[in-house]
Protein backbone atom coordinates (compact mmCIF):
# COMPACT_ATOMS: atom_id res chain seq x y z
CA UNK A 1 0.00 0.00 0.00
CA UNK A 2 2.82 2.40 0.85
CA UNK A 3 4.45 1.66 -2.53
CA UNK A 4 1.24 2.80 -4.25
CA UNK A 5 1.31 6.10 -2.34
CA UNK A 6 4.96 6.65 -3.28
CA UNK A 7 4.11 6.02 -6.95
CA UNK A 8 1.32 8.57 -6.60
CA UNK A 9 3.84 11.02 -5.09
CA UNK A 10 6.06 10.52 -8.15
CA UNK A 11 3.08 11.32 -10.41
CA UNK A 12 2.28 14.44 -8.39
CA UNK A 13 5.95 15.49 -8.61
CA UNK A 14 5.92 15.10 -12.39
CA UNK A 15 2.73 17.16 -12.72
CA UNK A 16 4.10 19.84 -10.36
CA UNK A 17 7.43 20.05 -12.20
CA UNK A 18 5.71 20.48 -15.58
CA UNK A 19 2.87 22.79 -14.64
CA UNK A 20 4.69 25.08 -12.18
CA UNK A 21 6.69 26.76 -14.92
CA UNK A 22 4.45 26.43 -17.94
CA UNK A 23 1.68 29.05 -17.64
CA UNK A 24 -1.09 26.47 -17.24
CA UNK A 25 -1.62 26.45 -13.44
CA UNK A 26 0.15 23.96 -11.21
CA UNK A 27 -2.37 24.33 -8.37
CA UNK A 28 -5.24 23.80 -10.78
CA UNK A 29 -3.67 20.64 -12.18
CA UNK A 30 -2.84 19.35 -8.69
CA UNK A 31 -6.46 19.87 -7.58
CA UNK A 32 -7.73 18.06 -10.68
CA UNK A 33 -5.16 15.27 -10.28
CA UNK A 34 -6.20 14.75 -6.67
CA UNK A 35 -9.79 14.32 -7.84
CA UNK A 36 -8.63 11.46 -10.05
CA UNK A 37 -5.68 9.95 -8.14
CA UNK A 38 -6.19 10.68 -4.48
CA UNK A 39 -3.30 10.39 -2.06
CA UNK A 40 -4.29 8.31 0.95
CA UNK A 41 -3.43 11.09 3.40
CA UNK A 42 -5.29 13.46 5.69
CA UNK A 43 -6.89 16.60 4.31
CA UNK A 44 -4.49 18.69 6.41
CA UNK A 45 -1.42 16.91 5.03
CA UNK A 46 -2.57 17.22 1.41
CA UNK A 47 -3.27 20.93 1.87
CA UNK A 48 0.35 21.32 2.99
CA UNK A 49 1.75 18.85 0.43
CA UNK A 50 0.36 20.58 -2.66
CA UNK A 51 2.20 23.77 -1.67
CA UNK A 52 5.42 22.46 -0.09
CA UNK A 53 6.13 20.14 -3.04
CA UNK A 54 6.91 23.38 -4.87
CA UNK A 55 10.16 23.69 -2.89
CA UNK A 56 11.62 21.13 -5.27
CA UNK A 57 10.68 23.33 -8.20
CA UNK A 58 12.23 26.35 -6.46
CA UNK A 59 15.55 24.55 -6.14
CA UNK A 60 15.61 24.05 -9.92
CA UNK A 61 15.43 27.83 -10.42
CA UNK A 62 18.21 28.39 -7.88
CA UNK A 63 20.44 25.85 -9.63
CA UNK A 64 19.79 27.07 -13.20
CA UNK A 65 19.88 30.81 -12.49
CA UNK A 66 22.38 30.94 -9.64
CA UNK A 67 24.66 33.47 -11.36
CA UNK A 68 21.68 35.71 -12.12
CA UNK A 69 20.18 35.77 -8.63
CA UNK A 70 23.11 35.46 -6.18
CA UNK A 71 24.08 39.04 -5.25
CA UNK A 72 27.61 38.37 -3.98
CA UNK A 73 30.91 37.66 -5.73
CA UNK A 74 33.68 39.40 -7.66
CA UNK A 75 33.33 37.34 -10.83
CA UNK A 76 30.93 38.75 -13.47
CA UNK A 77 30.13 41.70 -11.20
CA UNK A 78 28.83 44.29 -13.69
CA UNK A 79 27.87 46.85 -11.04
CA UNK A 80 30.01 46.42 -7.89
CA UNK A 81 29.21 48.59 -4.90
CA UNK A 82 32.89 49.59 -4.78
CA UNK A 83 35.99 48.83 -6.78
CA UNK A 84 37.95 47.57 -3.79
CA UNK A 85 37.32 45.88 -0.45
CA UNK A 86 34.06 44.25 0.63
CA UNK A 87 32.04 46.43 -1.73
CA UNK A 88 33.69 44.76 -4.72
CA UNK A 89 31.87 41.53 -3.75
CA UNK A 90 28.39 43.12 -3.77
CA UNK A 91 26.44 43.04 -7.04
CA UNK A 92 24.21 46.09 -6.85
CA UNK A 93 22.30 45.26 -10.03
CA UNK A 94 21.17 41.92 -8.56
CA UNK A 95 20.26 43.59 -5.27
CA UNK A 96 18.07 46.02 -7.27
CA UNK A 97 16.43 43.06 -8.99
CA UNK A 98 15.61 41.51 -5.61
CA UNK A 99 14.19 44.79 -4.31
CA UNK A 100 11.87 44.85 -7.34
CA UNK A 101 10.92 41.21 -6.74
CA UNK A 102 10.15 42.07 -3.11
CA UNK A 103 7.71 44.75 -4.29
CA UNK A 104 6.01 42.17 -6.54
CA UNK A 105 5.53 39.75 -3.64
CA UNK A 106 3.87 42.19 -1.25
CA UNK A 107 0.22 42.12 -2.52
CA UNK A 108 -0.07 38.32 -2.63
CA UNK A 109 1.89 37.91 0.62
CA UNK A 110 -0.44 40.19 2.60
CA UNK A 111 -3.62 38.64 1.23
CA UNK A 112 -2.25 35.09 1.51
CA UNK A 113 -1.29 35.43 5.17
CA UNK A 114 -4.67 36.94 6.08
CA UNK A 115 -7.06 34.90 3.94
CA UNK A 116 -5.28 31.71 2.77
CA UNK A 117 -7.64 29.30 4.54
CA UNK A 118 -10.74 31.21 3.41
CA UNK A 119 -9.67 31.22 -0.24
CA UNK A 120 -8.85 27.51 -0.11
CA UNK A 121 -12.31 26.74 1.29
CA UNK A 122 -14.17 28.95 -1.19
CA UNK A 123 -12.27 28.57 -4.45
CA UNK A 124 -10.31 25.29 -4.46
CA UNK A 125 -12.75 23.35 -6.64
CA UNK A 126 -13.07 22.30 -10.26
CA UNK A 127 -15.52 25.09 -11.16
CA UNK A 128 -13.18 27.92 -10.22
CA UNK A 129 -10.18 26.11 -11.70
CA UNK A 130 -11.89 25.57 -15.06
CA UNK A 131 -13.22 29.13 -15.29
CA UNK A 132 -9.82 30.67 -14.52
CA UNK A 133 -8.11 28.29 -16.95
CA UNK A 134 -10.40 29.58 -19.70
CA UNK A 135 -10.25 33.28 -18.75
CA UNK A 136 -6.46 33.44 -18.68
CA UNK A 137 -6.24 31.21 -21.74
CA UNK A 138 -8.24 33.80 -23.65
CA UNK A 139 -6.05 36.54 -22.13
CA UNK A 140 -2.88 34.91 -23.47
CA UNK A 141 -4.28 34.73 -26.99
CA UNK A 142 -5.67 38.28 -26.99
CA UNK A 143 -2.50 39.84 -25.55
CA UNK A 144 -0.18 37.93 -27.87
CA UNK A 145 -2.28 39.00 -30.88
CA UNK A 146 -2.18 42.60 -29.64
CA UNK A 147 1.58 42.49 -29.10
CA UNK A 148 2.33 40.76 -32.40
CA UNK A 149 3.63 43.90 -34.08
CA UNK A 150 4.59 45.74 -30.90
CA UNK A 151 8.17 46.19 -29.75
CA UNK A 152 8.53 45.44 -26.01
CA UNK A 153 9.62 48.38 -23.88
CA UNK A 154 11.51 46.13 -21.44
CA UNK A 155 13.70 43.32 -22.78
CA UNK A 156 15.65 42.34 -19.65
CA UNK A 157 14.26 41.27 -16.27
CA UNK A 158 16.75 43.53 -14.49
CA UNK A 159 15.23 46.57 -16.24
CA UNK A 160 11.77 46.08 -14.72
CA UNK A 161 11.00 49.19 -12.66
CA UNK A 162 9.39 49.43 -9.23
CA UNK A 163 6.11 50.55 -10.84
CA UNK A 164 6.10 47.57 -13.21
CA UNK A 165 7.07 45.26 -10.35
CA UNK A 166 4.08 46.45 -8.31
CA UNK A 167 1.58 45.93 -11.13
CA UNK A 168 3.01 42.50 -11.92
CA UNK A 169 2.50 41.74 -8.22
CA UNK A 170 -1.15 42.77 -8.54
CA UNK A 171 -1.60 40.26 -11.36
CA UNK A 172 0.03 37.62 -9.19
CA UNK A 173 -2.51 38.47 -6.49
CA UNK A 174 -5.23 37.10 -8.78
CA UNK A 175 -3.39 33.77 -8.89
CA UNK A 176 -3.04 33.76 -5.10
CA UNK A 177 -6.83 33.98 -4.77
CA UNK A 178 -8.12 31.87 -7.65
CA UNK A 179 -6.61 28.43 -8.40
CA UNK A 180 -6.43 27.73 -12.11
CA UNK A 181 -5.08 31.21 -12.82
CA UNK A 182 -1.44 30.07 -12.62
CA UNK A 183 1.13 32.08 -10.70
CA UNK A 184 3.50 32.03 -13.66
CA UNK A 185 0.60 32.61 -16.05
CA UNK A 186 -0.64 35.67 -14.17
CA UNK A 187 2.89 37.07 -13.91
CA UNK A 188 3.58 36.56 -17.61
CA UNK A 189 0.19 37.92 -18.74
CA UNK A 190 0.68 41.00 -16.58
CA UNK A 191 4.25 41.52 -17.77
CA UNK A 192 3.32 41.13 -21.46
CA UNK A 193 0.43 43.54 -21.03
CA UNK A 194 2.81 46.05 -19.44
CA UNK A 195 5.28 45.88 -22.34
CA UNK A 196 7.80 43.33 -21.06
CA UNK A 197 9.32 40.88 -23.55
CA UNK A 198 8.50 37.16 -23.36
CA UNK A 199 12.05 36.25 -22.28
CA UNK A 200 12.16 38.89 -19.55
CA UNK A 201 8.64 37.98 -18.38
CA UNK A 202 9.54 34.29 -18.13
CA UNK A 203 12.78 34.96 -16.27
CA UNK A 204 11.06 37.36 -13.88
CA UNK A 205 8.39 34.81 -13.03
CA UNK A 206 11.13 32.26 -12.28
CA UNK A 207 12.91 34.67 -9.93
CA UNK A 208 9.67 35.79 -8.34
CA UNK A 209 8.74 32.19 -7.59
CA UNK A 210 11.63 31.78 -5.15
CA UNK A 211 10.43 34.07 -2.32
CA UNK A 212 6.73 33.56 -3.09
CA UNK A 213 6.82 29.78 -3.05
CA UNK A 214 9.28 29.62 -0.15
CA UNK A 215 7.03 31.92 1.89
CA UNK A 216 3.88 29.97 1.02
CA UNK A 217 5.61 26.68 1.86
CA UNK A 218 6.89 28.00 5.19
CA UNK A 219 3.39 29.20 6.09
CA UNK A 220 1.89 25.80 5.29
CA UNK A 221 4.57 23.91 7.26
CA UNK A 222 4.05 26.15 10.30
CA UNK A 223 0.30 25.53 10.14
CA UNK A 224 0.71 21.75 9.74
CA UNK A 225 3.59 21.35 12.18
CA UNK A 226 6.54 18.96 12.01
CA UNK A 227 4.73 15.85 13.26
CA UNK A 228 5.10 13.82 10.03
CA UNK A 229 4.57 10.10 9.93
CA UNK A 230 7.23 8.08 8.07
CA UNK A 231 5.02 7.63 5.00
CA UNK A 232 4.04 11.32 4.97
CA UNK A 233 7.69 12.41 5.10
CA UNK A 234 8.51 9.93 2.32
CA UNK A 235 5.65 11.13 0.11
CA UNK A 236 6.68 14.78 0.56
CA UNK A 237 10.38 14.12 -0.06
CA UNK A 238 9.75 11.97 -3.15
CA UNK A 239 7.36 14.56 -4.59
CA UNK A 240 9.88 17.36 -4.06
CA UNK A 241 12.79 15.43 -5.62
CA UNK A 242 10.75 14.49 -8.70
CA UNK A 243 9.45 18.06 -9.03
CA UNK A 244 13.06 19.32 -8.93
CA UNK A 245 14.30 16.99 -11.67
CA UNK A 246 11.30 17.61 -13.94
CA UNK A 247 11.54 21.38 -13.35
CA UNK A 248 15.13 21.42 -14.59
CA UNK A 249 13.96 19.96 -17.89
CA UNK A 250 10.84 22.11 -18.24
CA UNK A 251 12.54 25.43 -17.49
CA UNK A 252 15.21 24.75 -20.10
CA UNK A 253 12.50 23.75 -22.59
CA UNK A 254 10.43 26.88 -21.97
CA UNK A 255 13.36 29.27 -22.33
CA UNK A 256 14.26 27.64 -25.64
CA UNK A 257 10.64 27.52 -26.82
CA UNK A 258 9.86 31.21 -26.35
CA UNK A 259 12.86 32.26 -28.43
CA UNK A 260 10.90 31.22 -31.53
CA UNK A 261 7.28 30.95 -30.37
CA UNK A 262 4.66 32.92 -28.46
CA UNK A 263 2.48 31.80 -25.55
CA UNK A 264 -0.73 31.26 -27.53
CA UNK A 265 -0.40 27.47 -27.54
CA UNK A 266 -0.64 27.56 -23.74
CA UNK A 267 -3.72 29.76 -24.04
CA UNK A 268 -5.45 27.23 -26.29
CA UNK A 269 -4.41 24.39 -23.97
CA UNK A 270 -5.95 26.22 -21.02
CA UNK A 271 -9.23 26.83 -22.87
CA UNK A 272 -9.56 23.22 -24.00
CA UNK A 273 -8.66 21.83 -20.57
CA UNK A 274 -11.03 24.23 -18.83
CA UNK A 275 -13.88 23.20 -21.12
CA UNK A 276 -13.16 19.50 -20.54
CA UNK A 277 -13.08 19.99 -16.78
CA UNK A 278 -16.41 21.85 -16.84
CA UNK A 279 -17.97 19.12 -18.95
CA UNK A 280 -16.68 16.40 -16.61
CA UNK A 281 -18.01 18.32 -13.63
CA UNK A 282 -21.47 18.69 -15.14
CA UNK A 283 -21.41 14.97 -15.97
CA UNK A 284 -20.61 14.17 -12.36
CA UNK A 285 -17.23 12.64 -13.14
CA UNK A 286 -15.40 15.04 -10.80
CA UNK A 287 -16.55 17.01 -7.76
What would you say this structure looks like, in words?
- The protein is an all-alpha fold and 287 residues long.
- The protein has one domain.
- The protein has helices spanning 2-19, 26-36, 43-52, 54-64, 66-69, 92-123, 126-147, 162-177, 183-193, 198-224, 230-257, 264-282.
- Helix 1 (2-19) runs parallel beside helix 11 (230-257).
- The longest helix is centred in the middle third of the chain and has 32 residues, at 92-123.
- The chain is globular, with a radius of gyration of 19 Å.
- The two termini are 25 Å apart.
- The relative contact order is 0.20.
- One of its GO terms (biological process) is cell wall organization.
- It is found in: Cell membrane.
- It catalyses: di-trans,octa-cis-undecaprenyl diphosphate + H2O = di-trans,octa-cis-undecaprenyl phosphate + phosphate + H(+).
- Pfam families: BacA.
